[in-house]
Amino acid sequence: MNKATKNLCPRCGKARIEVKKWREKIGESWVTYTNTVCPDKACQKIVEEKIATHTAERQAIEKKRAEAKQARQSINLRRTIHRPRMDMELSLVH
Ligand SMILES: [Zn+2]
């Protein structure tokens, strides 16, 4: 019926209001972005807080992953440093 029904608030189900529409060129094609808000200000605030929490959680997970990767890399680095010394010890035993 009307195109607003496509953008329903995930929280209260009300039709969301378009506040901003812009186009961006991604590679060779133009992509239209639409920023919508819930007509209920209190609801919109909660939705935004949820998004912020999700973003923070995702960033925390990504940070942990990066730290784990870094830790793995430093272990590998330590291994390569230790290897020559082990070889030396082995040659001493022989
Ligand atoms: Zn809402």
Major sheet size, sense and barrel closure: 2 strands, antiparallel
Helix content: 55-70%
Number of domains: 2
**N→C terminal distance:** 86 Å
Structural class: alpha+beta
What's the helix-strand series?
A: EEH
Could you tell me the number of beta strands?
2
Chain-averaged pLDDT: 85
Q: Which strand order spans the largest sheet, edge to edge or round the barrel?
A: 1-2
Low-confidence stretches: 1-5
Beta content comes to 15-25%
Rg over alpha carbons: 27 Å
Which descriptor suits the 3D outline? elongated
Task: Catalogue the ligands.
Answer: zinc ion
> Tally the helices: what do you get?
1
Task: Put the structure in a nutshell.
The chain is of the alpha+beta class.
Structure description:
56% of the residues lie in helices and 20% in strands. With 94 residues, it is of the alpha+beta class. It has 2 domains: 1-39, no CATH class; 41-94. A two-stranded antiparallel ribbon has the order 1-2. The chain is elongated, with a radius of gyration of 27 Å. The termini are far apart. Mean pLDDT is 85; it is low at 1-5. The structure holds zinc ion. Residues 9, 11-12, 14, 38, 40, 43 line the site of zinc ion.
What is this structure's SSE topology?
Layout: E1 17-26, E2 29-37, H1 41-93
Antiparallel strand pairs: 1-2
The structure holds zinc ion.
